[in-house]
């Protein structure tokens, strides 16, 4: 699969615009993520969760009865944030439930490789012998958040605050 390369623009200040590959590597290696969605009443909803970068998108999972899953299933867009060694990243985009068995297996493999969490595809969802602290009890609905816009905010000198737009 060919990587989707976004267009970068410096938002403010001085400094170099990071190469997208460095941001992608940061998303791949980061362990702690936060998912922001919007509740039906319009209030924000923010929760920590496990996340894997795979096939140029972020992948998360949740018990389908959890508020974050209900928000996404109800049409809420998503923003996912994380901290990397030199910068913080926020990725915004639509979140869609994954039902394709092959895709679910790849997502399960990514969670297992990254977190050591023994999750598997079963009956069109993800399943594990035990719950993840941020996903609730199994089975888990899997979601793909496809980047539309990404932001990097430097935490060290050098990189410039940058916005990436995906076409």
Can you offer a commentary on this structure?
The protein is of the alpha+beta class and 167 residues long. It has a single domain, classed as Pnp Oxidase, Chain A (Roll), CATH 2.30.110.10. The protein contains three helices and 13 strands; from the N terminus they run βαββββαβββαβββββ. The strands form three sheets. The protein has a seven-stranded antiparallel β-sheet. A four-stranded antiparallel β-sheet has the order 4-5-11-8, with helices on both faces. A two-stranded antiparallel sheet has the order 9-10. A hairpin with a 2-residue loop joins strand 9 and strand 10 (125-127). 32% of the residues are buried. The mean pLDDT is 94.
Short description:
With 167 residues, the chain is of the alpha+beta class. The protein is built from three helices and 13 strands, in the order βαββββαβββαβββββ.
């Amino acid at each position: 699969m060919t990587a989707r390369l976004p267009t970068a623009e410096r938002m403010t200040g001085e400094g170099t615009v990071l190469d997208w590959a460095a941001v992608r590597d940061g998303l791949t290696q980061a362990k702690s993520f936060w998912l922001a969605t919007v509740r039906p009443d319009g209030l924000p909803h923010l929760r920590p969760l496990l996340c894997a970068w795979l096939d140029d998108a972020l992948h998360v999972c949740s018990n389908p009865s959890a508020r974050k899953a209900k928000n996404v299933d109800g049409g809420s867009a998503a923003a996912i944030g994380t901290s990397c060694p030199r910068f913080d990243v926020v990725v915004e985009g639509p979140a869609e439930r994954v039902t394709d068995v092959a895709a679910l297996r790849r997502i399960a493999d990514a969670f297992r490789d990254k977190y050591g969490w023994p999750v598997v595809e079963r009956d069109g969802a993800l399943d594990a012998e035990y719950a993840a602290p941020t996903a609730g009890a199994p089975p888990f609905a899997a979601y793909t958040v496809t980047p539309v816009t990404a932001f990097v905010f430097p935490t060290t000198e050098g990189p410039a605050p940058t916005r990436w737009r995906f076409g």
